[in-house]
Amino acid sequence: MSKVWILILVLFSYNSFAAPKSELWSYWDVHSQSQQSIDHSQWQSILDTYLVTQGDLTLFRYASVTKADKQRLKTYLSSLASIDPRQYSKAEQYAYWVNLYNSLTVQLILDNYPVKSITKLGSLFSFGPWDDKLISVTGKSLTLNDIEHRILRPIWNDPRTHYAVNCASLGCPNLQPQAFTAQNTEQLLTQSAKVFINSDKGVKVSNGALQLSSIYDWFAVDFGGKKGVLQHIAQYHDDLATADNLATFNGKITYDYDWQLNETAK
């Protein structure tokens, strides 16, 4: 295949990106009253060591990850794979799936590093690796899309999930510096929503024009449609005057998303 055709295919897949629908995988919609907790300390250690805050961004030092910490990450993922999350409480499960998604994404980047964008991964004709089978839990092979769109979105129906899962891109809501737990999930979801909405990559108002993250276009249905998106944004915006204007905004909205890798060398 010529380089020209490859370029055309890449550009076509980039411009035709469409977000998957929320479609329940009912096998995972089972919860217990167990008070048991899942240990995420190994993931927390990785975050403490390699996640760096720079302005409104949290960036990952992929190039600095040691061989020992790559093994630590694999051990952590193996421990999650050995668990049947259905035997835990619903709150414990949410933390499990978010941490599994985020740690799998980091491992994907590390396994293919150096790479400029996660969209460069996956098969030649795919836009990124989100449909690649990456892990098996209770004998079920899972993709990142399975975790986000067949488990997290349909079971919890919380639009703030879009601020919790991280796709290793600058345009994505930040990878949180804390591993999710049953105890801190609500705090982290609220915090991540506020940080994203009050950053230019989330919401940018300039001379009466409104630019939003493409997340609010791709997943508008999760927020209750276009009007629901604006009301959601207004709820978390720090500037009250801006929030009031956003809630009733009726002008043109543009969308943007930066797929560059969320990395830093520092």
Write the layout of secondary structure elements.
Layout: H1 3-15, H2 41-50, E1 51-54, E2 57-60, H3 67-81, H4 90-112, E3 135-137, E4 140-142, H5 144-156, H6 161-164, H7 185-197, E5 203-206, E6 209-213, H8 215-218, H9 225-236, H10 240-247, E7 253-256
Parallel strand pairs: 6-7
Antiparallel strand pairs: 1-2, 3-4, 5-6
Helix pairs in contact: 3-4, 4-5, 9-10
Pfam families: DUF547 (PF04784)
Keywords: Signal
InterPro entries: DUF547
What this model shows, in words?
This is DUF547 domain-containing protein. Keywords: Signal. Residues 86-197 form the DUF547 domain. InterPro entries: DUF547. The chain is mainly alpha-helical and 266 residues long. The chain has one domain. Helix content is 43%, strand content 10%. It has ten helices and seven strands. The strands form three sheets. It has a three-stranded mixed β-sheet with strand order 5-6-7. β3 and β4 form a beta hairpin. α3 (67-81) packs antiparallel against α4, α4 runs antiparallel to α5 and α9 runs antiparallel to α10 (240-247).
